[in-house]
Amino acid sequence: MSEITKDRTNALRTEPFARLFFYRQNEDFQVALYLLILLNLNEDEVSGIKWDDIDFQKRQIRIKDGEVSLTSDICNFLYEFRTRKLVEYYEKGILNHFCYVCSDANGNRISGDRLSKDFKSYLELYGYESLTPQEIHSTFPEYLYKNDMVTKIIRMYLENSRIQLR
């Protein structure tokens, strides 16, 4: 692993990343960012995912080119997130507006361009160019799984979530 890759990987797991991840105004973007990093999906694939595309039993997400397997941690995270969002939207009487994992506060899809722009601006904050798919695939997930960071990220997200079950 090159030093540049190590530095980039380190930037994604630091406290500033956690702050950006947990305290953005739109919780749906957090799920998109999480999927983009951990599953190595491109922006178009992430922005087009519907809840129906996630098979929680088989732990897979259907995308244009096939299916992507989910670890149990990621699957549990998405299931918990969906449950909390559905309860929140049901209580507000706008359940049908929430169709996509990546949607804004009004339930409108977040475009691939917007997602890409948001992700790139985060990396630019730290002076990095966008990670290549190879860098994400070969370094970031491996580090997370070896050090149990996936579970920690999920736990921190749920503890800091503004969505509360009643």
From TrEMBL:
It comes from the Bacteria. Keywords: DNA recombination. InterPro entries: DNA_brk_join_enz (IPR011010), Integrase-like_cat_sf (IPR013762), Integrase_catalytic (IPR002104). GO terms for molecular function: DNA binding. GO terms for biological process: DNA integration; DNA recombination. Residues 7-166 form the Tyr recombinase domain. PROSITE patterns: TYR_RECOMBINASE (PS51898). This is Phage integrase family protein. It comes from [Clostridium] leptum CAG:27. The lineage of its organism: Bacteria, Bacillati, Bacillota, Clostridia, Eubacteriales.
